[in-house]
Design goal:
- The protein is an alpha+beta fold.
- It folds into 2 domains: 77 residues; 91 residues, Ribosomal protein S6/Translation elongation factor EF1B (Alpha-Beta Plaits), CATH 3.30.70.60.
- Helix content is 55%, strand content 24%.
- Strands 1, 2, 3, 4 and 5 form a 5-stranded antiparallel β-sheet that branches.
- The longest helix has 71 residues.
- The radius of gyration is 37 Å and the shape is rod-shaped.
């Protein structure tokens, strides 16, 4: 084999050497360079995906901390509450205080939701022909009540029969200690 290479002319040696370098280059590209480039592209995609996941995790962590603080606040307020008033009568008292006592159309307790630390008692309220000022006052009273109460959702529609009147439906969450009956 060496004798054959030695018998080649200079031009043929250059051509064989060039072909050998070309083949070695192709092998190096397909065996090392191309896989490394593909791996680099994959890792770049994975890094951006993991950065998005990390951002979502940080958002969820902040949301968890906020919810945990709210739960601790509910438990703290429940422990500080000495009242044994029922949630329905307390909501009715707040409605009367806000000037909505006569507009209560429905006050319906929904099935309670138990948690390890407290029980959530949802209550659905409906007011007929209520004034905006009274509704705002009622929501303010709920927000600043001595016992933990939260407005879950609120639906307001203008009353067709009376000008300035509103039909209001809302769901209120009331809380009591898990040990309380």
């Amino acid at each position: 084999m060496i004798k054959r290479i030695q018998n080649l002319t200079l031009r043929e040696k250059i051509l064989v050497g060039g072909a050998a370098i070309f083949i070695i280059g192709l092998l190096a590209y397909f065996l090392f360079i191309s896989p490394a480039m593909e791996r680099s592209k994959l890792l770049t995609r994975l890094i951006s995906q993991k950065e998005r996941e990390l951002h979502q995790l940080l958002l969820l962590t902040e949301e968890y901390k906020k919810l945990k603080f709210e739960e601790d606040e509910i438990v703290r307020r429940l422990a500080a509450t000495k009242e044994s008033i029922s949630p329905l009568s307390h909501l009715e008292q707040l409605a009367k205080k806000a000037g909505l006592g006569d507009q209560i159309q429905r006050m319906k307790p929904l099935p309670p939701i138990s948690t390890p630390r407290y029980v959530i008692i949802p209550v659905q309220l409906r007011f007929k022909r209520a004034g905006l000022k009274e509704i705002i006052t009622y929501l303010y009273e709920i927000e600043n009540a001595s016992i933990p109460i939260q407005a879950r959702w609120l639906k307001i529609r203008p009353t067709a029969r009376s000008a300035g009147g509103l039909d209001v439906t809302l769901e209120i969450l009331t809380f009591r200690s898990s040990g309380a009956k």
